[in-house]
Amino acid sequence: MAALATVCETDGVLGIVAPLALAAAATTALVVDLDPAGPRYPGPGSLAELVEQGPRLDDLVPGRSGVAVLRNGGIEATDAGDVVAALARGWPNVVLRLPRGGGNISLPVVPVIPLLPGGMTPKSDRPAVYQRLGWHEQAPGPALTMPTPARGTVAALLEGRMPAASRWISAWKQVWGMPWV
Asked: How far apart are CA 50 and CA 156, in angstroms?
């Protein structure tokens, strides 16, 4: 089991799409949104419903390869801890989408930072994923730099579909092997 959390403090769209890309880079993964005000990702059920009804065995282990997404449904991460821990034990790869500000979590956190022109990119003093947005800026700190995603790739992920071959998603594979602190 591998579990990583992602947070993007400065870009709402990147904060929604980055966890999906990280999950898509794994063979089989579950994205769990820990932000009560998070997006309404496509798919059945929510974390809030799992906590209320209790997870079934089908929820706790993947039934097929690929990406599954569990939207939040309006529950605080502290109220969902037992269910999230059970999901993390059963799935081979789990990506937790954190709200801005991160929260108190004991998993490795991957900061995702958009690369802005003119020296406007905030610097992280710890390893981060810097996302190119069309400019050829250099990352200001220890980092992995992702290529600019194709519009079709982003659209497919937001619609709940897996895009065809994507250089951007392939670049996210290296995130799984990094020592995040």
From this structure: 26
CB atoms within 10 A of CB 31: 23
* Neighbour tally for 37: CB within 10 Å: 9
b vs e for 106-140, b when ≥16 Cβ sit within 10 Å of the residue's Cβ?
A: ebebbbbbbbeeeeebeebeebbbbbbbeeebebe
| Residue 5 backbone phi and psi in degrees, to 5 | -110, 150
Q: Which long-range CB contacts under 8 A does 49-53 form with residues at least 24 apart? A: 49/73, 50/80, 50/83, 51/75, 51/79, 51/80, 51/83
Q: What is the pTM of this model?
A: 0.94
Q: What is the pLDDT of residues 60-103, one digit of tens each?
A: 999 999 999 999 999 999 999 999 999 999 999 999 999 988 77
Q: Are 107 and 3 in contact (CB under 8 A)?
A: yes
H/E stretch holding 152: helix 151-158
